[in-house]
Amino acid sequence: MIIKEYRVLLPLEVEEYQRGQLFSVAEASKQETGGGEGVEIIKQEPFTSNEIREGQTLSGIYAHKLYHLKSKMPWIVRKLLPESAMVLDEESWNCYPYCKTVLTNPGYMKKDFRITVETIHLQDDGSTENALNVSDEVLKQREVVVLDIYDDTHLNKKTDIRPETDPSLFLSQKTGRGPLAPDWSKTTKPVMCCYKLVTAYFKWTGFQGKIENFIHGSYPRLFTKFHRELWTWVDLWYDLTLEDIHKYEEETAEKLRKQRENGKVRGMSADGCVVNPLFEDKENFVD
Protein backbone atom coordinates (compact mmCIF):
# COMPACT_ATOMS: atom_id res chain seq x y z
CA MET A 1 0.00 0.00 0.00
CA ILE A 2 1.40 3.39 -1.05
CA ILE A 3 0.19 6.64 0.52
CA LYS A 4 0.89 10.08 -0.93
CA GLU A 5 -0.52 13.48 -0.06
CA TYR A 6 -0.86 15.80 -3.03
CA ARG A 7 -1.08 19.51 -2.22
CA VAL A 8 -2.54 21.58 -5.08
CA LEU A 9 -2.15 25.37 -4.89
CA LEU A 10 -4.71 27.70 -6.50
CA PRO A 11 -5.39 31.49 -6.65
CA LEU A 12 -8.90 31.12 -5.22
CA GLU A 13 -10.93 31.51 -2.07
CA VAL A 14 -12.10 28.21 -0.54
CA GLU A 15 -15.72 29.30 -1.01
CA GLU A 16 -15.09 30.02 -4.69
CA TYR A 17 -13.41 26.66 -5.24
CA GLN A 18 -16.51 24.73 -4.19
CA ARG A 19 -18.44 26.10 -7.17
CA GLY A 20 -15.49 25.71 -9.48
CA GLN A 21 -14.96 22.09 -8.49
CA LEU A 22 -18.55 21.05 -9.14
CA PHE A 23 -18.69 22.86 -12.48
CA SER A 24 -15.33 21.49 -13.63
CA VAL A 25 -16.10 17.89 -12.66
CA ALA A 26 -19.22 18.05 -14.83
CA GLU A 27 -17.36 19.71 -17.69
CA ALA A 28 -14.40 17.32 -17.55
CA SER A 29 -16.74 14.32 -17.48
CA LYS A 30 -18.21 15.44 -20.82
CA GLN A 31 -14.70 15.64 -22.30
CA GLU A 32 -13.98 12.03 -21.30
CA THR A 33 -17.28 10.39 -22.24
CA GLY A 34 -18.42 8.92 -25.55
CA GLY A 35 -18.56 5.79 -27.67
CA GLY A 36 -19.59 3.46 -24.85
CA GLU A 37 -16.92 4.77 -22.50
CA GLY A 38 -16.55 7.40 -19.82
CA VAL A 39 -18.76 8.39 -16.90
CA GLU A 40 -22.06 6.73 -16.02
CA ILE A 41 -23.92 8.37 -13.13
CA ILE A 42 -25.87 5.79 -11.13
CA LYS A 43 -27.05 7.84 -8.16
CA GLN A 44 -26.66 11.33 -6.71
CA GLU A 45 -28.49 12.28 -3.52
CA PRO A 46 -28.16 14.01 -0.11
CA PHE A 47 -26.74 11.97 2.78
CA THR A 48 -26.01 12.14 6.50
CA SER A 49 -23.67 9.56 8.02
CA ASN A 50 -21.33 8.95 10.95
CA GLU A 51 -19.40 6.25 9.06
CA ILE A 52 -17.51 8.37 6.51
CA ARG A 53 -14.99 9.90 8.90
CA GLU A 54 -14.27 8.52 12.34
CA GLY A 55 -15.76 10.56 15.17
CA GLN A 56 -17.80 12.86 12.91
CA THR A 57 -21.33 13.01 11.58
CA LEU A 58 -21.20 14.47 8.09
CA SER A 59 -23.84 15.67 5.63
CA GLY A 60 -23.55 16.44 1.95
CA ILE A 61 -24.04 14.84 -1.46
CA TYR A 62 -23.41 11.14 -2.10
CA ALA A 63 -22.65 10.08 -5.67
CA HIS A 64 -22.24 6.64 -7.21
CA LYS A 65 -20.64 6.47 -10.66
CA LEU A 66 -19.16 3.92 -13.01
CA TYR A 67 -16.13 4.68 -15.17
CA HIS A 68 -15.85 2.68 -18.39
CA LEU A 69 -12.17 2.95 -19.25
CA LYS A 70 -11.25 0.37 -21.89
CA SER A 71 -9.50 2.79 -24.27
CA LYS A 72 -7.79 4.48 -21.33
CA MET A 73 -5.95 1.29 -20.40
CA PRO A 74 -2.52 0.30 -21.78
CA TRP A 75 -2.78 -2.19 -24.65
CA ILE A 76 -1.24 -4.99 -22.57
CA VAL A 77 -4.05 -4.61 -19.99
CA ARG A 78 -6.69 -4.71 -22.73
CA LYS A 79 -5.08 -7.84 -24.16
CA LEU A 80 -4.65 -9.78 -20.91
CA LEU A 81 -7.67 -8.84 -18.80
CA PRO A 82 -11.44 -9.16 -19.28
CA GLU A 83 -13.63 -6.10 -19.87
CA SER A 84 -14.89 -6.30 -16.28
CA ALA A 85 -11.39 -5.24 -15.18
CA MET A 86 -11.81 -1.96 -17.07
CA VAL A 87 -14.88 -0.68 -15.24
CA LEU A 88 -14.24 1.23 -12.01
CA ASP A 89 -16.88 1.79 -9.37
CA GLU A 90 -16.72 5.17 -7.60
CA GLU A 91 -18.50 6.24 -4.43
CA SER A 92 -18.00 9.79 -3.23
CA TRP A 93 -19.17 11.82 -0.27
CA ASN A 94 -18.91 15.55 -0.84
CA CYS A 95 -19.32 17.40 2.45
CA TYR A 96 -17.25 20.41 1.50
CA PRO A 97 -14.65 21.46 2.52
CA TYR A 98 -14.04 17.74 3.25
CA CYS A 99 -14.59 15.13 0.52
CA LYS A 100 -13.95 11.40 0.27
CA THR A 101 -13.84 9.19 -2.81
CA VAL A 102 -13.42 5.40 -2.97
CA LEU A 103 -12.67 3.57 -6.23
CA THR A 104 -12.97 -0.20 -6.56
CA ASN A 105 -13.27 -2.84 -9.26
CA PRO A 106 -15.94 -5.24 -7.95
CA GLY A 107 -16.36 -6.93 -11.34
CA TYR A 108 -12.83 -8.37 -11.40
CA MET A 109 -10.38 -7.35 -8.63
CA LYS A 110 -13.05 -7.29 -5.89
CA LYS A 111 -11.33 -6.69 -2.49
CA ASP A 112 -7.84 -6.72 -4.02
CA PHE A 113 -8.07 -3.22 -5.54
CA ARG A 114 -8.98 0.00 -3.79
CA ILE A 115 -8.06 3.66 -4.14
CA THR A 116 -9.16 6.09 -1.45
CA VAL A 117 -8.89 9.86 -1.87
CA GLU A 118 -9.54 12.10 1.13
CA THR A 119 -9.50 15.84 0.50
CA ILE A 120 -9.65 18.93 2.67
CA HIS A 121 -9.62 22.46 1.24
CA LEU A 122 -7.89 25.15 3.33
CA GLN A 123 -7.15 28.85 2.86
CA ASP A 124 -3.38 28.49 3.16
CA ASP A 125 -0.21 28.04 1.10
CA GLY A 126 0.07 24.27 1.50
CA SER A 127 2.17 24.43 4.67
CA THR A 128 -0.24 22.70 7.08
CA GLU A 129 1.59 19.58 8.21
CA ASN A 130 -1.40 17.35 9.02
CA ALA A 131 -4.41 18.97 7.36
CA LEU A 132 -6.47 15.77 7.37
CA ASN A 133 -5.62 14.83 10.97
CA VAL A 134 -4.34 11.38 10.08
CA SER A 135 -2.63 9.04 12.52
CA ASP A 136 1.09 9.00 13.28
CA GLU A 137 1.30 5.66 11.48
CA VAL A 138 -0.09 7.17 8.26
CA LEU A 139 2.21 10.20 8.61
CA LYS A 140 5.22 7.89 8.69
CA GLN A 141 4.15 6.23 5.42
CA ARG A 142 2.97 9.39 3.66
CA GLU A 143 4.97 11.15 0.97
CA VAL A 144 4.06 14.80 0.32
CA VAL A 145 3.93 16.03 -3.30
CA VAL A 146 3.28 19.75 -3.90
CA LEU A 147 1.60 20.60 -7.24
CA ASP A 148 1.51 24.12 -8.65
CA ILE A 149 -0.85 24.75 -11.57
CA TYR A 150 1.74 27.08 -13.11
CA ASP A 151 4.18 24.17 -13.45
CA ASP A 152 3.53 21.95 -16.49
CA THR A 153 6.25 19.39 -15.66
CA HIS A 154 3.76 16.56 -15.12
CA LEU A 155 1.63 17.24 -18.19
CA ASN A 156 1.62 15.56 -21.59
CA LYS A 157 3.21 18.23 -23.76
CA LYS A 158 1.24 17.16 -26.87
CA THR A 159 -2.27 16.87 -25.45
CA ASP A 160 -2.52 18.69 -22.10
CA ILE A 161 -0.96 22.09 -22.75
CA ARG A 162 -3.16 24.58 -24.60
CA PRO A 163 -3.01 28.40 -24.63
CA GLU A 164 -6.58 28.71 -23.33
CA THR A 165 -5.80 26.66 -20.20
CA ASP A 166 -2.30 28.00 -19.54
CA PRO A 167 -2.21 29.92 -16.21
CA SER A 168 0.83 31.88 -17.38
CA LEU A 169 -1.33 33.40 -20.15
CA PHE A 170 -4.82 33.49 -18.65
CA LEU A 171 -6.31 36.73 -17.28
CA SER A 172 -9.68 36.43 -15.54
CA GLN A 173 -12.06 39.18 -16.63
CA LYS A 174 -14.37 38.63 -13.65
CA THR A 175 -11.79 38.43 -10.84
CA GLY A 176 -8.94 40.47 -12.34
CA ARG A 177 -6.51 37.72 -11.33
CA GLY A 178 -3.74 36.41 -13.53
CA PRO A 179 -1.70 35.81 -15.55
CA LEU A 180 0.24 33.84 -12.93
CA ALA A 181 4.00 34.27 -12.51
CA PRO A 182 6.38 31.46 -11.48
CA ASP A 183 6.33 32.67 -7.84
CA TRP A 184 2.63 33.54 -7.81
CA SER A 185 1.81 31.55 -4.63
CA LYS A 186 4.22 33.76 -2.65
CA THR A 187 3.25 37.10 -4.20
CA THR A 188 -0.48 36.75 -5.00
CA LYS A 189 -3.66 36.71 -2.94
CA PRO A 190 -5.81 34.76 -2.46
CA VAL A 191 -4.01 31.41 -2.17
CA MET A 192 -5.65 28.13 -1.17
CA CYS A 193 -4.62 24.50 -1.08
CA CYS A 194 -6.38 21.22 -1.83
CA TYR A 195 -4.85 18.56 0.43
CA LYS A 196 -5.46 15.16 -1.20
CA LEU A 197 -4.42 12.03 0.67
CA VAL A 198 -4.38 9.15 -1.84
CA THR A 199 -4.05 5.56 -0.68
CA ALA A 200 -3.50 2.97 -3.44
CA TYR A 201 -3.95 -0.72 -2.65
CA PHE A 202 -3.47 -3.45 -5.25
CA LYS A 203 -3.01 -7.04 -4.09
CA TRP A 204 -1.65 -9.17 -6.88
CA THR A 205 1.47 -11.22 -6.28
CA GLY A 206 4.41 -9.98 -8.32
CA PHE A 207 2.65 -6.80 -9.48
CA GLN A 208 1.59 -5.00 -6.30
CA GLY A 209 4.40 -2.45 -6.05
CA LYS A 210 4.51 -1.78 -9.80
CA ILE A 211 0.76 -1.18 -10.11
CA GLU A 212 0.56 0.99 -6.98
CA ASN A 213 3.45 3.09 -8.29
CA PHE A 214 1.75 3.27 -11.70
CA ILE A 215 -1.46 4.52 -10.07
CA HIS A 216 0.40 7.24 -8.19
CA GLY A 217 2.38 8.05 -11.32
CA SER A 218 -0.85 9.22 -12.98
CA TYR A 219 -2.04 11.52 -10.19
CA PRO A 220 0.33 14.51 -10.65
CA ARG A 221 -0.77 14.80 -14.28
CA LEU A 222 -4.44 14.32 -13.53
CA PHE A 223 -4.60 16.73 -10.59
CA THR A 224 -2.54 19.37 -12.39
CA LYS A 225 -4.58 19.17 -15.60
CA PHE A 226 -7.92 19.30 -13.78
CA HIS A 227 -6.98 22.27 -11.62
CA ARG A 228 -5.45 24.26 -14.47
CA GLU A 229 -8.78 23.88 -16.25
CA LEU A 230 -10.76 24.73 -13.12
CA TRP A 231 -8.80 27.99 -12.75
CA THR A 232 -8.87 29.01 -16.42
CA TRP A 233 -12.62 28.28 -16.60
CA VAL A 234 -13.25 30.63 -13.65
CA ASP A 235 -15.10 33.20 -15.79
CA LEU A 236 -17.55 30.47 -16.85
CA TRP A 237 -18.53 29.48 -13.31
CA TYR A 238 -17.71 32.50 -11.13
CA ASP A 239 -21.18 34.09 -11.22
CA LEU A 240 -23.06 30.79 -10.87
CA THR A 241 -24.77 29.91 -7.59
CA LEU A 242 -24.67 26.40 -6.12
CA GLU A 243 -28.28 26.04 -7.25
CA ASP A 244 -27.26 26.96 -10.82
CA ILE A 245 -24.47 24.40 -10.74
CA HIS A 246 -26.65 21.61 -9.36
CA LYS A 247 -29.03 22.23 -12.27
CA TYR A 248 -26.05 22.09 -14.64
CA GLU A 249 -25.00 18.75 -13.07
CA GLU A 250 -28.47 17.31 -13.75
CA GLU A 251 -28.31 18.45 -17.38
CA THR A 252 -24.80 17.00 -17.67
CA ALA A 253 -25.93 13.60 -16.39
CA GLU A 254 -28.38 13.33 -19.29
CA LYS A 255 -25.75 14.51 -21.79
CA LEU A 256 -23.32 11.89 -20.50
CA ARG A 257 -25.89 9.15 -21.02
CA LYS A 258 -26.46 10.23 -24.62
CA GLN A 259 -22.74 10.62 -25.33
CA ARG A 260 -21.96 7.15 -23.97
CA GLU A 261 -24.69 5.63 -26.13
CA ASN A 262 -24.14 7.55 -29.36
CA GLY A 263 -20.97 9.62 -29.27
CA LYS A 264 -17.37 8.90 -30.19
CA VAL A 265 -14.64 7.83 -27.78
CA ARG A 266 -13.17 10.98 -26.23
CA GLY A 267 -10.51 12.24 -23.88
CA MET A 268 -7.17 11.04 -22.60
CA SER A 269 -5.88 7.79 -24.03
CA ALA A 270 -3.43 5.13 -22.93
CA ASP A 271 -0.72 7.06 -24.79
CA GLY A 272 -0.41 9.12 -21.63
CA CYS A 273 -1.65 7.77 -18.31
CA VAL A 274 -4.73 5.85 -17.25
CA VAL A 275 -7.54 8.35 -16.92
CA ASN A 276 -8.44 9.11 -13.35
CA PRO A 277 -12.02 10.37 -13.40
CA LEU A 278 -11.72 13.84 -11.39
CA PHE A 279 -11.22 12.91 -9.88
CA GLU A 280 -13.15 14.53 -6.38
CA ASP A 281 -12.85 14.54 -6.07
CA LYS A 282 -12.68 14.49 -10.86
CA GLU A 283 -11.18 15.68 -8.73
CA ASN A 284 -11.26 14.12 -8.58
CA PHE A 285 -10.11 10.16 -9.76
CA VAL A 286 -11.11 13.62 -8.79
CA ASP A 287 -12.78 14.39 -5.61
Write the CATH architecture name: 2-Layer Sandwich
CATH class: Alpha Beta
The Cα radius of gyration reads: 18 Å
Percent of sequence in beta strands: 25-35%
Question: Looking at CATH, which topology would you report?
Answer: Alpha-D-Glucose-1,6-Bisphosphate, Chain A, domain 4
Number of domains: 1
Oligomer: single chain
- Total of helices: 7
Tell me the total number of β-strands: 8
Query: What ranges have pLDDT less than 50 throughout 5 or more consecutive residues?
Result: 268-287
Query: Quick one: biggest sheet?
Result: 8 strands, mixed
Specify the structural class.
Answer: alpha+beta
Average pLDDT across residues?
87
Pfam family, one: IP_trans
Domain Phosphatidylinositol transfer protein N-terminal: 1-253
GO molecular function: phosphatidylcholine binding; phosphatidylcholine transporter activity; phosphatidylinositol binding; phosphatidylinositol transfer activity
Protein name: Phosphatidylinositol transfer protein
Structural write-up:
With 287 residues, the protein is α+β, with helices and mostly antiparallel strands. It has a single domain (2-262), classed as Alpha-D-Glucose-1,6-Bisphosphate, Chain A, domain 4. The chain has 7 helices and 8 strands. It has helices spanning 14-31, 75-80, 136-141, 184-187, 208-232, 234-237, 242-262; strands at 2-10, 38-49, 58-68, 87-95, 98-105, 110-122, 143-148, 192-202. It has an 8-stranded mixed β-sheet. Strand 4 and strand 5 (98-105) form a beta hairpin. The longest helix is centred in the C-terminal third of the chain and has 25 residues, at 208-232. The chain is globular, with a radius of gyration of 18 Å. The two termini are 20 Å apart. Residues 268-287 have low confidence and may be disordered. One of its GO terms (cellular component) is cell periphery. This is Phosphatidylinositol transfer protein. It holds the Pfam family IP_trans. InterPro entries: PI_transfer (IPR001666), PI_transfer_N (IPR055261), START-like_dom_sf (IPR023393). One of its GO terms (molecular function) is phosphatidylinositol binding.
